[in-house]
Amino acid sequence: MKKKHKVIGITGGIASGKSTVSDYIKSKGYPVLDADIYARKVVEPGSQGLKEIVEAFGEAALNEDGTMNRQQVGSIIFNDPKKRAILNGITHPIIRQKMNEDRDFYLQTTHVFQDIPLLFENGLERQMDEVIVVYVDRAVQIKRLMTRNNMSEADAISRIESQMSLDEKKDRASVVFDNTGTIETLYKQIDDYLQELS
Ligand SMILES: CC(C)(COP(=O)(O)OP(=O)(O)OC[C@H]1O[C@@H](n2cnc3c(N)ncnc32)[C@H](O)[C@@H]1O)[C@@H](O)C(=O)NCCC(=O)NCCS
Ligand SMILES: Nc1ncnc2c1ncn2[C@@H]1O[C@H](COP(=O)(O)OP(=O)(O)OP(=O)(O)O)[C@@H](O)[C@H]1O
To answer: CA 68, CA 43: separation in Å to the nearest integer?
Structure first.
């Protein structure tokens, strides 16, 4: 009997290593749809998404060239749950619709991965055959986020705490990749997983 193609979610905490996992899986030939990339597309200049964001957050949400001022919007929403819910309400339905269309296209021929930072927060595990959680120790997570984003410890912690705790995500996972160690250790876990999958 023909094997059904799977929809596999990749999630984790901010800076836990989702993109590192996604890039490696892509290099092995699988399609990986990245919610952060869709999130950028739905707020391009001229989009309905950006128009609604300016209505909700004012002109301060814009750079001079008409693109969204990501730093400004980020500094508002990562410190204010109500504002975060407003931004999510504008962006998430459009992101989901576009991602689902692409997922259905790829599913005809292959397994599809979806890298979605807020997968559990948005109850999307129901749409997945499996959910991989990329886990990292909290101290290492704070350090990697501070280094990558050139950010203070307080800002790193407020971003981490605007998401469900990584320990809870780990408990809900069907598969856990532990990325507290080296990249090589991470790749080994992915290789083992992909071997099972094929
Ligand atoms: C708030 C924004 C402007 C910050 O932009 P910035 O370039 O600094 O960060 P980037 O988009 O690269 O996101 C980095 C990470 O932040 C986390 N994050 C982003 N948005 C959210 C959110 N609404 N709630 C919690 N965590 C979030 C995710 O882990 C994401 O991977 C931007 O993230 C955004 O438009 N968010 C709303 C859309 C969204 O929810 N995206 C997440 C995936 S659906
Ligand atoms: N095993 C590792 N050892 C050292 N550095 C790592 C390791 N894994 C990832 N990194 C680094 O940590 C940072 C976060 O990784 P990555 O960007 O893959 O996380 P992410 O979960 O996709 O982040 P975000 O939620 O912000 O999109 C990056 O700078 C990356 O190069």
So the answer is: 7
Q: Which atom of ligand 2 is nearest to the CA of 14?
A: 25
**Residue whose entry in the numeric block shows the structure tokens 């002109």:** 59
CATH 3.40.50.300 correct for 1-31+110-198:
yes
Name the helix (H) or strand (E) containing 133: strand 130-135
pLDDT tens-digit series, residues 76-95: 999 899 999 999 999 999 99
Distance 159 CA to ligand 1 centre (A): 9
pTM equals: 0.92
Query: Using one digit for the tens of pLDDT, what is the confidence trace for 11-49?
Result: 999 999 999 999 999 999 999 999 999 999 999 999 999
Which of 20, 33, 34, 70 is the pocket-test mutation for ligand 1 (most atoms within 8 Å of CB)? 70
Check if 95 has its Cβ closer than 6 Å to any atom of ligand 1: yes
List every span in the chain annotated with CATH 3.40.50.300.
1-31+110-198
* Widest Cα–Cα separation across the chain: 57
Strand partners, 130: 8
